[in-house]
């Protein structure tokens, strides 16, 4: 059997894999990137294609030149998105939240292709048509077994970066308990209820839509949403997603039904230039980032590490920064010769402490946990009632101190007044009583307190492996308090 040796092996040719491989190579490591798809389909994936401010280098760290990608007209399809809209048209509700300037609906295929080009240019060996089907380990993860162009190949390496997406099977192949860890293995394998299922098409409309500067979401009968993300005023990425702990929804049929009932989509059809290959569905991670994304010789990034926003399902940026972090840590560990959990802990530290967005995503997941306990009609009524800043706190990933102060204003008294003013026919239409609504809105305020407590705990995420178990006990105590507040039986608890 053919054998190849590299310092860093990256599985996955998506956003996380490219950021990881490019960063490790730029830091001086020898890197191979393995992708099961052929080159011409690399980086191609089911996606709503909405992406925040690609020119902002703080959001996209590392050697990948996002500015150059964003300047490419084939990638940057709609750079004028400046708002998010929540529309519950049945109820006459429209909430408008500001979105960062220069945000985009991109062409995901062209974007993926440019990422792969840049990654190769930074010195990464890319092996396409290469399916990883096993992991080798000996105290630490030592490499993978793969089939490349139909031939078996063994890849040996110092560090394996698992960037194989939300449906990564790499984690199932590693026997984490058998690795040389100082205490118990810290790596936590996700459960299927932590995922969502999503599907999209790209359609052409005869007339321009009036929301060409907005990414639009609207409710679904289960926890999830339908989206309309305009690439151009007449070319719309439409899709839907829901969480897998709910009743399954036939996604393509449900989307068709929605499109057929929208006046602006009368006469719309799947865009010819995209045809059937752009009707795509996939799993999506809707959980908090893994408590620890490292094991001896192993790092997880992107969908495989749960760095997706569990309410909105947005994961491009999380994949970029976690990929960067994994690549940087892998190169450092190779240079230091320490491939243990201690040596690789920097990946967790950077994401949770220094960069901090993993902490933000993990804290916001409390809204997903609480939302899953509420009937979807009550959720709709709550969304109709909540002030826009409050919704922004739930769907956003960035908060500054000034924001926090203003959010503290939305307290129980204010909500009581809002409910008394709100049209009762709206609630009746949903079959939601004022009492139920009041209880649920109070629940949101209560959940927000827990979000702040999670933020506090994650701000103290361990700097090194040594104190992880103590920190984890504290975090798990907060989980228990939160579940008690929500009155959740053990089988209903997300983690
Ligand atoms: C329908 C849908 C809509 C979405 N909309 C948005 C959006 O609008 N905005 C946003 O920011 N995020 C969105 N997301 C989420 C976002 O697409 C993901 O979070 C992101 O793509 C994750 O990137 P990744 O690199 O971790 O994984 P992926 O992009 O999934 O890449 C993983 C790669 O690994 C390869 N691979 C897997 N297993 C193996 C193996 N055994 N051997 C070799 N190769 C393997 C796969 O072929 C794939 O190319 C959406 C997701 C879905 C499903």
From TrEMBL:
Q: Name one GO molecular function term.
A: oxidoreductase activity
State the Gene Ontology BP annotations.
phospholipid biosynthetic process
The organism of origin for this protein: Halovenus carboxidivorans
* Record has Lipid biosynthesis as a keyword: yes
UniProt keyword annotations, A-Z:
FAD, Flavoprotein, Lipid biosynthesis, Lipid metabolism, Oxidoreductase, Phospholipid biosynthesis, Phospholipid metabolism
Q: Where is the Digeranylgeranylglycerophospholipid reductase catalytic domain?
A: 205-248
Under the heading PANTHER family, the entry gives: DIGERANYLGERANYLGLYCEROPHOSPHOLIPID REDUCTASE (PTHR42685:SF18), GERANYLGERANYL DIPHOSPHATE REDUCTASE (PTHR42685)
Query: What is the name attached to this protein's record?
Result: FAD-dependent oxidoreductase
Would the keyword Lipid metabolism be found if you checked this record's keyword annotation? Answer: yes
Q: Which domain of life is it from?
A: Archaea
Against InterPro entries, the record matches this protein to: FAD/NAD-bd_sf (IPR036188), Geranylgeranyl_reductase (IPR050407), GGR_cat (IPR054715)
């Amino acid at each position: 059997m053919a054998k190849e040796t590299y310092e860093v092996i990256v599985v996955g040719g998506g956003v996380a894999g490219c950021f990881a491989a490019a960063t490790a190579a730029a830091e001086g490591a020898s890197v191979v990137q393995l992708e099961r798809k052929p080159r011409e389909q690399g980086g191609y994936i089911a996606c709503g294609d909405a992406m925040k401010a690609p020119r902002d280098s703080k959001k996209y760290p590392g050697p990948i030149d996002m500015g150059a990608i964003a300047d490419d007209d084939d990638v940057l399809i709609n750079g004028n998105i400046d708002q998010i809209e929540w529309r519950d048209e049945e109820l006459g509700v429209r909430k408008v939240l500001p979105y960062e300037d220069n945000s985009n609906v991109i062409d995901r295929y062209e974007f993926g292709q440019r990422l792969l080009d840049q990654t190769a240019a930074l010195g990464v060996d890319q092996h396409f048509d290469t399916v990883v089907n096993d992991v080798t380990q000996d105290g630490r993860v030592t490499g993978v077994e793969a089939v490349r162009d139909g031939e078996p190949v063994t890849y040996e390496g110092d560090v394996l970066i698992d960037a194989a997406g939300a449906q990564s099977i790499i984690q199932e192949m590693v026997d984490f308990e058998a690795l040389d860890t100082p205490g118990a293995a810290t790596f936590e394998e996700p459960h299927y209820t932590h995922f969502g299922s999503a599907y999209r098409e790209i359609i052409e409309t005869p007339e321009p839509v009036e929301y060409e500067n907005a990414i639009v979401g609207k409710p679904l009968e289960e926890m999830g949403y339908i989206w309309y993300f305009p690439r151009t005023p007449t070319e719309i990425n439409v899709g839907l997603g829901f969480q897998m702990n709910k009743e399954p929804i036939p996604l393509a049929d449900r989307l068709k039904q929605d499109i057929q009932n929208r006046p602006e989509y009368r006469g719309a059809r799947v865009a010819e230039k995209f045809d059937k290959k752009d009707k795509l569905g996939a799993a999506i991670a809707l959980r908090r980032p893994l408590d620890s994304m490292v094991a001896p010789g192993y790092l997880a990034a992107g969908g495989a590490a749960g760095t997706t926003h569990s309410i909105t399902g947005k994961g491009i940026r999380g994949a970029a920064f976690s990929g960067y972090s994994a690549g940087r840590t892998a190169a450092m560990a190779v240079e230091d010769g320490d491939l243990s959990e201690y040596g690789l802990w920097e990946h967790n530290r950077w994401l949770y402490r220094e960069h901090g967005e993993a902490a933000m995503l993990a804290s916001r997941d409390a809204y997903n946990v609480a939302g899953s306990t509420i009937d979807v009609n009550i959720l709709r009524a709550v969304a109709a009632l909540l002030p826009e800043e409050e919704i922004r706190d739930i769907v956003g990933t960035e908060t500054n101190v000034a924001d926090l102060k203003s959010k503290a204003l939305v307290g129980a008294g204010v909500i009581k007044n809002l409910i008394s003013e709100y049209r009762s026919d709206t609630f009746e239409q949903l079959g939601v009583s004022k009492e139920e609504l009041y209880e649920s809105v109070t629940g949101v305020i209560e959940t927000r307190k827990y979000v702040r407590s999670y933020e506090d705990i994650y701000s103290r995420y361990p700097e090194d492996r040594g104190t992880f178990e103590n920190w984890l006990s504290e975090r798990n105590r907060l989980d228990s308090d939160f579940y008690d507040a929500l009155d959740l039986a053990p089988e209903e608890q997300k983690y």
